[in-house]
Amino acid sequence: MNLHEYIKDLWTHPEKYHHKIIWYVNVLRFGNRKYSIGYCTYGKGIAFINDDPLAPLIIDDIIIQLALDDGTPANCSDAKWCFNTRCPLSNIKDKKSSRLNLEEIEKKLEEIGLGFDKAKCERIAFEKPVIELRRYK
User: Fold this and answer.
1) pLDDT tens, position by position, 94-105
2) Is 60:39 a contact under the CB 8 Å cutoff?
């Protein structure tokens, strides 16, 4: 696919390139801060962890550009902020240490019946965080 074909296809079939983020708002506490977690439906993993209450309202989806015939590799519009180490388009630097924490969070969500595959909408707000992480000394 060349750039012209990609842009035309993007406009006529946006669902192929726009992938939703499912947000669990105010789901996690670490210390005195509350965090929201954004799950990427393209990479099938936690992509965003944010303590800014506006992030779940601003970051609604990601856009994937497929590899082009001119050698341009596939890329993601939010790869530089993404924590999903399983996604081949993520640019996260320290993949090993980040993976351990995110897998732990995903496992805890599954254990309490809040796996992202069960989410019925794109934003689920929690009155109080349901997961608390602590620092180990």
Assistant:
1) 555 554 478 888
2) no
Report whether pLDDT(131) > 70: yes
pLDDT band at 34 (very low <50, low <70, confident <90, very high): very high
Look at strands 61-65 and 18-30 and give their pairing.
antiparallel
CB 78 within 8 A of CB 59: yes
Cα separation, 87 vs 110, in Å, equals 20
pTM assigned to the model: 0.83
pLDDT at 133: 81
- Domain segments of the chain as ranges: 3-129
Please report the DSSP string for the chain in residue order: --HHHHHHHHHH-GGGTEEEEEEEEEEEEETTEEEEEEEETTTTEEEEEE--TTHHHH--EEEEEPP-TTSPPPEETTGGG---TTSTT---S-HHHHHHHHHHHHHHHHHTT--GGG--SSEEE-SS-SEEE----
